[in-house]
Design brief:
The chain is an alpha+beta fold. It is 26% helix and 24% strand.
């Protein structure tokens, strides 16, 4: 007897997802509530648990397929009987009507099993075969029905000298064609690979373009001397970590500075809804975090009422769960202002794009030692460029500059953060 595994409710207004990866193979033992598949929604990855204990049976859909809420994606066999695997287990990078097996790379080796039957190679396996210059017909496959897997190719590559992959024969030219001009010899091959965009990447692309098309985007810049913050971190980092169990980072200072500046310039923390402006008496800060599948922006709720330790703990938790793929839709909801730290990747300067329906985003960048004038003397200071992108429909230039100056003042004199100046 088999029990159906269905797509769970994914959140408000989300009706479908992409089956990103099967977490259990055909015939694997499965515990009750153990994840068997990972779904990609518009915002996060969602694991699908097994409703019962048993054995992984039929996998109804392939990786990369679009599934609706409530749809059956697999069956769990109570008696341990194996079901059927999906027809394809790779995302189809070809166009409609094509499959990875029928869409051949023009430079791919034409392999057969010895009896004239062509070998079916997935795009990832075909790519490895080409990279290592191997003859796939001479590699023993350990996959289903004897198909080659990536591990098979990698194992063969370790034990065999590289061979040059065969090149396709040139197409015959018509008799009336003029002689082709002499060209330099081609020393390497140029290949292309088509990979379907993840649902998360599609959503990011749509929202960012929507922001450009809807908002009147403008960016203002300033620079900030990080000496005081660096000194404070150096002086208190050990005590802070010993007391709170978390390292004192730069982001805590910037979150507190943004919350302080938003009190003086509330428009930066507001949003447009139709022909109305919605002001918030709280600051929910969206923090841009890099995840394996793209950029995500979990929200620090009520950041204006949090301590440094609470902010740093929340950010550290978001970072860990982003890497593990365990952030939830609830983590992403809301947000009244965004901070993006491109400096961790080495960015010197950028113009960040707002996260609709928010009206502003602060971009942080790398810290560089630069010459500046202090009290009439040229000295070196650890400087960072700040960028504030904002919706000019709601935020005036004067307000944007004032907000950025308030942030600069708080960072250069962190005492302001303690006495609300």
């Amino acid at each position: 007897m088999a029990t159906d595994v269905t797509v769970p409710t994914l959140g408000e207004s989300i009706t479908e997802a992409t089956l990103g990866k099967w977490l259990k193979k055909l015939g694997d033992p499965v515990k009750a509530d153990e994840p068997v598949a990972s779904l990609e929604t518009d915002k996060v990855a969602v694991e699908v648990p097994s409703p019962v204990a048993g054995t992984m049976g039929e996998q109804v859909v392939a990786e990369g397929a679009t599934v609706s809420v409530g749809a059956i994606i697999a069956r769990i066999e109570a008696n341990g009987a194996k079901g059927a695997a999906p027809a394809a287990t790779e995302v189809n990078p070809a166009g409609p009507g094509e499959t990875p097996a029928t869409r051949e790379d023009p430079h791919a080796p034409h392999a057969d099993e010895g009896d004239g039957t062509p070998l079916t190679l997935s795009p990832s396996v075909r790519r490895l075969v080409l990279e290592h210059g191997l003859d796939p017909s001479k590699i023993k496959g350990t996959g289903k029905d004897g198909r080659l897997t990536k591990d098979d190719v990698l194992a063969a590559a370790k034990g065999a000298p590289p061979a040059e992959a065969p090149r396709p024969a040139p197409a015959a030219e018509p008799a009336s064609a003029a002689p082709a001009p002499a060209r330099a010899a081609v020393t390497g091959e140029r290949r292309e690979e088509r990979v379907k965009m993840t649902r998360l990447r599609q959503t990011v692309a749509t929202r960012l373009k929507e922001a450009q098309n809807t908002a009147a985007l403008l960016t203002t810049f300033n620079d900030v001397d990080m000496s005081a913050v660096i000194e404070a971190r150096t002086r208190y980092k050990d005590l802070f970590e010993k007391k709170h169990g978390i390292k004192l980072g730069f982001m805590g200072f910037f979150v507190k500075a943004v919350c302080l500046a938003a009190r003086d310039v509330p428009a930066v923390n507001a949003r447009i809804d139709g022909d109305e402006i919605v002001y918030h008496d709280y600051v929910d800060v969206s923090v841009a975090v890099s995840a394996p599948n793209g950029l995500v922006v979990p929200v620090i709720r009520g950041a204006d009422a949090m301590s440094f330790a609470e902010i740093e703990n929340t950010i550290a938790d978001f970072g860990k769960r982003a890497r593990d793929g365990t952030l939830t839709l609830e983590d992403m909801k809301g947000g009244t202002f965004t901070i993006s730290n491109g400096g961790i990747f080495g960015s010197l300067l950028s113009t960040p794009i707002i996260n609709p329906p928010q009206s502003a985003v602060l971009g942080m960048h790398r810290i560089d030692e630069r010459p500046v004038v202090k009290d009439g003397q040229i000295v070196t200071r650890p400087m960072m460029y700040l960028a504030l992108s904002y919706d000019h429909r709601l935020v005036d230039g004067r307000e944007a500059v004032t907000f950025l100056v308030r942030v600069k003042e708080a960072i250069e004199d962190p005492t302001r953060l303690l006495i609300d100046l």
